[in-house]
């Protein structure tokens, strides 16, 4: 930690490692928190779940609050798994209901210092530990998996301006498969999660290394353009209009062939409909057909 007299550069990213000593404030709605760390630092940022005693590597900048003074505003955090016997026992007690210091101690003594890795690989190893029931073994395995996946997910995507709260929502929806989902095709989040659009999914895609010319990205951008057109009162776009708007959406030039392939793939999946030179978002197409049917019915009824 810099001395109190040191000049604070708000743009200078730093890393600090410390344990959470106390949670001064935590908003469960948006995950914002104020933490007292064991090195005397006050840290502020977003964390979906917090346990005192856990050690983290925080990445962020120093800032001076007009009322509370110097604080470390972190944008990324990576949990450091315990390695000492005492740390392992404390961690096991904190993550699993019904596991106290005695039983946690037996787990560490039986499975040794790499007990967490062994349990995550195969919860059946807990059968070797006296007093641990199959139900407790499953709960411990589930808790360790959740903590690992959520920590890795948060560390992976939150450097692109994605909040830990969204990482927690992704985990809630996809569970242990969360990492696989965002690494393979994060654009499915825009289809399957309320409040996640193309722009957010695109940030996650950059974080996980999806190529900018990925077919997944082009298909998602086409759907986004059609949806935006619908919001502006247009039921469809022509291919030429899509080609004209894609460079701005993608931040790059794109050739006709991959766009045509994307539209064809979306047609085959029933996500878009093409009639002549008009490309519709499928939902918009069905809505227009229904509206046209109602209008025809009204006209016929008045005839």
UniProtKB/TrEMBL annotation:
Its EC number is 3.6.4.12. Signal peptide: none annotated. GO terms for molecular function: DNA helicase activity; hydrolase activity. Keywords: ATP-binding, Helicase, Hydrolase, Nucleotide-binding. Residues 14-82 form the ATP-dependent RecD2 DNA helicase OB-fold domain. This is ATP-dependent RecD-like DNA helicase. InterPro entries: RecD2-like_HHH (IPR029493), RecD2_N_OB (IPR055446). Residues 148-236 form the ATP-dependent RecD2 DNA helicase-like helix-hairpin-helix domain. The gene is recD2_2. Pfam families: HHH_5 (PF14520), HHH_RecD2 (PF14490), OB_YrrC (PF23139).
């Amino acid at each position: 930690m810099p001395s109190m007299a040191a000049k604070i550069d708000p743009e200078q990213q730093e890393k600090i490692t410390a344990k959470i000593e106390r949670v001064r404030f935590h908003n469960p709605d948006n995950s914002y928190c104020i933490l007292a760390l064991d090195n005397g630092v006050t840290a502020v940022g977003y964390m979906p779940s917090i346990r005192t005693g856990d050690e983290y590597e925080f990445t962020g900048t120093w800032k001076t609050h007009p009322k509370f003074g110097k604080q470390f505003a972190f944008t990324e955090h990576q949990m450091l798994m315990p390695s000492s016997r005492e740390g392992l026992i404390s961690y096991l007690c904190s993550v699993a209901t019904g596991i106290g210091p005695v039983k946690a101690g037996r787990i560490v003594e039986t499975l040794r210092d790499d007990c967490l890795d062994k349990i995550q690989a195969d919860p059946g190893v807990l059968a070797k530990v006296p007093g641990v029931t199959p139900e407790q073994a499953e709960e411990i395995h589930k808790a360790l998996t959740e903590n690992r996946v959520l920590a890795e997910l948060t560390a992976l995507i939150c450097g692109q301006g994605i909040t830990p709260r969204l990482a927690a929502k992704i985990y809630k929806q996809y569970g242990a498969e969360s990492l696989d989902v965002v690494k393979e095709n994060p654009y499915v989040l825009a289809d399957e999660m309320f409040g996640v659009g193309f722009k957010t999914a695109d940030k996650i895609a950059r974080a996980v290394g999806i190529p900018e010319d990925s077919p997944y990205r082009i298909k998602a951008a086409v759907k986004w353009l059609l949806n935006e057109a619908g919001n502006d009162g247009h039921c469809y776009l022509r291919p030429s209009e899509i080609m004209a708007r894609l460079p701005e959406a993608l931040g790059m030039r794109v050739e006709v062939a991959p766009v045509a392939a994307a539209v064809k793939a979306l047609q085959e999946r029933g996500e878009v409909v093409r009639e002549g030179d008009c490309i519709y978002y499928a939902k918009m197409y069905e809505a227009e057909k229904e509206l046209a049917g109602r209008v025809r019915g009204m006209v016929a009824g008045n005839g």
